[in-house]
């Protein structure tokens, strides 16, 4: 029965959602705030300045989070360390992590583009060892494949899955240049099976691509979706302005 | 398989639900209360006074929230900013945001009325760039289309969906003049796929229209509903009276 | 497809569940307790003493709540006001509202008894504008009709629903004189579609009627039930004894 | 359609789960601890010493609770009173009730053993008015019968249910002498339909009986299970040792 | 209908997940921290140093926990005691247990390797009375068998289950030397039916084995999975470094 695809994995990702305790922040004295911001900016710039991987921070709209940190690192240990190091900062004391997703970049399975001369293609390497796009917005959501009686992804044939993924890719290609997609796998690592980041300069494109794809068989029939986070990227140096409301 | 409809999007919406910490509020000294109310009234009136979009505040009945803020803004950044700016007020320290919905107005898909001489009709523009109706009450709820084996909206034909939406519109027309409806999309943006605001001067009409529509195929078979919020609108200048119990 | 029933609505209901912070209460000084109790008794007696509607308080067994307030009022605004007014009392500071249900009384749909000489019958009026029965206990629960592929209430014929409701009424009639039932609708108003109050002097009758009805097609096949609250009514003047443990 | 069974009910049960605030407890001064323990031991021994019913306390393994109180009382009012009386103790201030189950003992329906010379048999009376067994461990869990399209307990025939319960009883009889079972009903009273207590001196028997029964049609097809609590009974006089870690 | 397998059980397991209150920890004075760490190291080393069983501690990536304690003990009482004893430490006051799983090792049912000369094989004994592997990482998750209309594990024949488990074992054997698996049962003991620990020196192997197995009938059709925890093991003596961020 089993027809799993061969996959290659790359770097690890942590999406960490944090809520701010605004009341405590507002009533902190200015010196505390200043030093907390300075330390946090230093943390964020240092975290993004690593040789391999990077770190980005987003303002999340709505109550689910205030901030989302996206960390990419070569190893689980480094991911754990960068998450934990933030907890030692002054700013962290005004926040708590309320949701997260741990995953690892992957390629393979559904495209031929991933292999070149018997080696990983440049395309594949850009997916496995990605830079975080500079795009203004991100739509992040975790998802899984359904395993219900009449809609069980893991009971379909490899050929059927290939066809569904081709349809899915074609829907995605309509948004080439407008959406940059980062797919990471979390089976055996976190509750949902995959994480999806859609980077874009116009959230209407994120809405458009997810809406269009929802009519693809792979989504319509075989996917269940977790929470969606809408984030606005800002450079660490704008943290001060962010916290000023 | 894919037959998505073409959509046009307009302004962004944030429904932000907040619970008050009444104990802390009650025991605050009068001067703190007064200045907190003054500042919040100024915030709310300013937020509603923007050139494009607006802001309304509702008292929510039941434990799910005390207050609901409805913000409409042309951009995600402005939405994020108006949400965050409130956190810097004194009143915010007596509240916390416990639920929210982020979405964007949309038209298209199921009516011909949306286009006129190849351009967006006046009707469509009123839906994309809406004023917040003055109605006394609002019933707000998020919803999604079902994707279950025998009831999968995204597997129906475009013609079938058109028919279902026509039936739905006809049910709605029975309430013309009694209910003003505002539909916004949140696919790729928030957890549910749509947000629905029913503005009315008599909550029994909101109950009536949702009850009647529940027998329409589009609702009966193909919809799942999130939490329903019943809100009573009040002008910012009544905030003082609101908080006096 | 749509065959909704005509309904008439009456007064609005709020079931408000509250948990006590017993630790804070226990360590409050006697003068604070006394004045908090006096004020709360005055609030409860005043709330029950309105010309139209009424208010009752119940001790809830188990962890879901300590107290349940049942408010009945002619308008949503009055419901909102009576809920909010409690928050300004001293006792409220020792409690928090952890669950609630907002609804409106309704008749019509499934009986002929509701109309008499073209007007609402006396029976119907007693259901729309009810007194809160004096019964010792209440079993309160919200419920909805199922909308699943093979068990979709909103896809059944009006005749089938009439038959199911007749069977249901017959089960209920076995408990005449032992159970007083109050049905209120919350479609478009709150998360569940209905609220059910079973007033009785012996909780075994509440268990009996719900058990018997569970074999009726309307319940067995077409209902889903929310949390059940078992409350013991007490007069406001016993609040002191209640809080003394 | 309805074929409910006749039931007889006896005493009421409250399973109350509590978590301890260990940090506060650890930092309390010795005199406070001593008097809190003395008062709680007195409460527990008094609660168990009632003429009808009894009270037992269990240490619960895992994070779901620290302590489980099992109260059995002839009336709902007494149950409510014994739950509330604890809240007035000093120890209660270091705990909070995080889960509970309210139910009433029942017999009838599926065995002939319950009636004797037209009266309740001695067996039935021992089930309706039970002593709490002295067993070292308890496995407590609430459960309901399924009401899904192809697995709806309330649509099966009475004969089919009799057969399923006979099979279930036979599975249970394999554990005679090793497991004492206490079944209580909570339809109309609490969220789940039944509560099950398995008293045993070896938790492996509790695992064994639930595993074996899971292959019985009544469980495999027609049951859904709530949380399982594994408790270790201890006499009130060991409370001191319990709290010493 | 019942065809349960004979099982043998061994030692009990507690997986205890804890979140740290980093803010309180950061602002504690150095002497408090030092003595808290010393005491916790002593606790952890003592807990691991027992004659039968052991204790390991993991740093958990993401928001679900900061630390996971894995305790293995011959009896439920010892498990309860080692969990409770931690609560008396200073470090515990900076943490709270937010999730857990209680289970017992088991063999039997699906392999012949478990019995040898009529006695438990060496293989079986290593599964029943296990050492905690030294592996760098653990993927821990609870799981249950599905009991839905068309995918009900407990309605399949014993032969079918044997075949499915053989397929599953073969998938697992691909990872021999890279993954050490520890299966424990929790039917009748905790909410999920089993707990699975995958010990590995490369989390990509944990992802790989769970992904591959998801195409096995036993997983694809008959399993539902709880939360997945990714843990990095560290020796108690590194607790100081862990807490330094």
> Which class of secondary structure composition applies to the elements of chain A?
alpha+beta
Low-confidence stretches of chain A: none
Distance between the termini of chain A: 55 Å
User: What's the overall average pLDDT of chain A, rounded?
Assistant: 94
Main sheet of chain A: which strands, in order across? 1-3-2-13-7-11-10-4
Biggest chain pair interface: B-C, 45 and 42 residues
Can you tell me the CATH superfamily of chain A? Answer: Apc35880, domain 1
Largest sheet geometry of chain A: 8 strands, antiparallel, barrel
CATH third-level topology of chain A: Alpha-Beta Plaits
Number of strands of chain A: 13
Order of helices and strands of chain A: EHHEEHEEEHEEEHEEHHEEH
CATH class of chain A: Alpha Beta
Helical residue percent band of chain A: 25-40%
**% residues in beta strands of chain A:** 25-35%
Please tell me about this protein's structure.
The structure is a homopentamer of 245-residue chains. The first copy, chain A, is α+β, with helices and mostly antiparallel strands. The first copy, chain A, has a single domain, classed as Alpha-Beta Plaits (2-Layer Sandwich). Chain A is 33% helix and 32% strand. Chain A has eight helices and 13 strands. An eight-stranded antiparallel barrel of chain A has the order 1-3-2-13-7-11-10-4, surrounded by four helices. In chain A, strands 5-6 form a two-stranded antiparallel ribbon. A two-stranded antiparallel sheet of chain A has the order 8-9. Chain A starts with 7 loop residues before the first strand and ends with a helix. At the D-E interface, helix 1, strand 7, helix 6 and helix 7 of D face strand 1, helix 3, strand 4 and strand 8 of E.
